[in-house]
# Entry
Amino acid sequence: MAWPLETYNDLVELIGKSEHEYDMDLIGRAYRLAESSHRGQKRLSGAPYISHPVAVACILVQLGMDSESVAAGLLHDVVEDTPISLEQIRKEFGDEVAELTDGVTKLGRIPYSSREVQQAENLRKMLIAMSEDIRVIIIKLADRLHNMRTIEFMPPQKQRDKALENMEVYAPIAHRLGIRAVKEELEDLSLRILDPVAYHEIENGLELRAGERAAFIERTKKKISDRVSQTIPNVYLEGRVKSIYGIYRKMFLQNRSMDEIYDIYAVRVIVDTVNDCYNVLGIVHDMFRPLPNRFKDYISTPKPNMYQSLHTTVIGKEGIPFEVQIRTWEM
# Structure
């Protein structure tokens, strides 16, 4: 898949749509220094190098990061790849941006190995860096994510090395930080390199294309919300689509075919009381056809780890099965 080149105008547009307040003077100055410093440099794709730090900054805005993080995202390769020094960054942008930029530069110098014996050491070093300023690792995750989106221009062995690093280091840390979107995209992009046959089999086996999956979940959430909220107050819904790597793991760890995976699409309904949970279950079963033997009552019989919820799998009007999880706020 070819990703479009992000421009500074794209970054400004993203910031304009954000709910956060941004220091556009700081970000504009960071962009101008990055653009002038990287001028003449090219990515392996042949694109102007500035397209990479701009893309990193865009990802950081999408993650809701602050102005200093966005500025550091724009400047993260300046010290490493241009004559600009860290002290120049500090003088022009202040200690905070300088320390973030320096932290990302240092993370980039940590040597990695795909050997299992070094996995814990890699994670330890990354976590130590996180403890000083968590924003450093988030900027590094954004940097890695954009590099993975454009990795097809790297030599094949380098692609595999980077994909293994993602699986061993970056995706687990994104998971620990609760940045699910980054974790899942890193895993999917890595799987496409490490096992391309399985990746494309799963992608082609999904009933909906990538853009349609989220739309299906949103439509389903709205249908359930509109109906449930008529009789039950204070209802909250969230939805998710299982990633391609998530499907891959379930298929191979549990020896299932795609037809045997019923939670590719899932909606969670959160209500106030246990009685509300069972009322929602009745409404959902009235709206959609439940699949036999796919109902689990983990409220009356919790899992060994004390997890509680009602789980049911139903068939949507499009003929697509999806799981509904119903729980209270306390569960």
In short: The CA atoms of residues 43 and 206 lie 33 Å apart. The domain at 206-328 is CATH 3.30.460.10 (Beta Polymerase; domain 2).
